[in-house]
Every structure is written in C-alpha cells, then in structure tokens.
Design brief:
The complex is a heterodimer of chains A (about 110) and B (about 110). With about 110 residues, chain A is an all-beta fold. Helix content of chain A is about 0%, strand content about 60%. Chain A contains no helices and eleven strands. In chain A, a hairpin with a 7-residue loop joins β9 and β10. The termini of chain A are far apart. Chain B is mostly beta strands and about 110 residues long. The termini of chain B are far apart. In chain B, about 0% of the residues lie in helices and about 45% in strands. The chains are: A mainly beta (about 110), B mainly beta (about 110).
Chain lengths: ~110, ~110
C-alpha cells in the first residue's frame, strides 16, 4: 500500500516566518507534487519534481520554493509566510506507466496569523 | 489553454436519486481524464479514469470529445457517496501533471 505522509496536520505560523512543509513517500516514485486546496478554487499546483534535485514551477509558485534532495522527500518552503498563504496544502506522489495514479498525503492545514 | 470546469459548487440529492456531476474541459489533443474523490476526514483518492472504462462504487464517466465533457454519473445515490469530487485532466508532459477543476460537493440526503 502506497504511503504518502506529511509532517504536520495543522500548523499555525506568524506573518514573515519561514515555514517548512515536509512530504515523504515510500514507493520510490520519481514524481512528486505540491498543491494548495482552497474552497471554490480546487487544487492548484505550486511546484512539482520529476526527479531528485529536479523541479518545475506549477501554476502558482510565487512565494514558495521547494527542495528535493532525496527521492522519497519533497519539501515545500514558504520563505516569508503571508496571510494569503493560509490554506490546505496537499502533497502527492505519482506512479508511472499503466496505472498512472497520483497518491495524496493527508494534507497540512496552515494558518498564517 | 488547458482548463477543467466544474460548474456546480454543490449538488444536493436524495438517497436513491440519480446523480450527475458535470465536468467540461478545454484541451488541444487527446486528453486523459480522471475523477478524484475526498470523503470527510480522508485523503484525496482516485475514483476512476476514462481510459479504464470501469465502474467504481457504481459511478461511471464517459468521455465525450464532441462536447468536451467527462460527466460523472450514478443511477442511485447512496448517503456514503457524500464527498467532494474533483475532475482532473492530465497534461501533455510525461511528468503526469494534473489540472484540477474547482470541485463539486455532493450531498446525499436520507
């Protein structure tokens, strides 16, 4: 069974803080993704990584960066948190080939005060 | 531009009634389309994909290229179907990037 875990379920930070969200998958997937989920807007892709140290911007990368030093771990970094980054953050990991499914983590609810 | 539109934020039906969750897409080429579901307090998970042409939990979805639609249907809704449903389109790249719609909350009343 594929497992995608995220370091925190709930996080409260102050404006201007540097925030790290961690995601780990245990299925040796090459591709990993960070989304934010907002009511009425659906899921929007922030960044994705197609291999170690490889990354590509998604649709809303401003204010975020990522790090993929090891295949199993994909980190999302908010360099200076702002209130408009209050959201649910979802990490996903992808198989390739015939099934081609994205497996999602449980999400991190981030509140920036 | 690639886009997925789910026109309904909320769909409320009674148990046993038919359900149709609408999804329209904009894409140049042969799309791959998916439905993902998120039950209360659970993680988002794949419900079905169009290439499999399968029925999962009684749900089916047919890709209509002429109308650029991929509506999700179930003939008789159950209370346990209440959830958030997202339609998604896979882009052209090999990285499997998905473009999601805005989501529709399905509420099945007893």
């Amino acid at each position: 069974d594929v497992k995608v875990t995220q370091s925190s379920r709930y996080l409260v930070k102050r404006t201007g803080e540097k925030v790290f969200l961690e995601c780990v998958q245990d299925m040796d997937h090459e591709n990993m993704f960070w989304y934010r989920q907002d009511p009425g807007l659906g899921l929007r892709l922030i960044y994705f990584s197609y291999d170690v140290k490889m990354k590509e911007k998604g649709d809303i990368p401003e204010g975020y960066s990522v790090s993929r030093e090891k295949k199993e771990r994909f980190s999302l970094i908010l360099e200076s948190a702002s209130t408009n980054q209050t959201s649910m953050y979802l990490c996903a990991s992808r198989t390739s080939g015939e099934t081609d499914t994205q497996y999602f983590g449980p999400g991190t609810r981030l509140t920036v005060l | 531009a690639q886009r997925v539109t789910q026109p309904e934020k909320l769909l409320s039906v009674f148990k046993g009634a038919p359900v149709e969750l609408k999804c329209n897409y904009s894409y140049s080429g042969s799309p791959e389309l998916f439905w993902y579901v998120q039950y209360s307090r659970q993680r988002l998970q794949l419900l079905l994909r169009h290439i499999s042409r399968e029925s999962i939990k009684g749900f089916t979805a047919d890709l209509n290229k002429g109308e650029t639609s991929f509506h999700l249907k179930k003939p008789f809704a159950q209370e346990e179907d209440s959830a958030m449903y997202y339609c998604a389109l896979r882009g052209v790249s090999n990285t499997g990037k998905l473009i999601f719609g805005q989501g529709t909350t399905l509420q099945v009343k007893p």
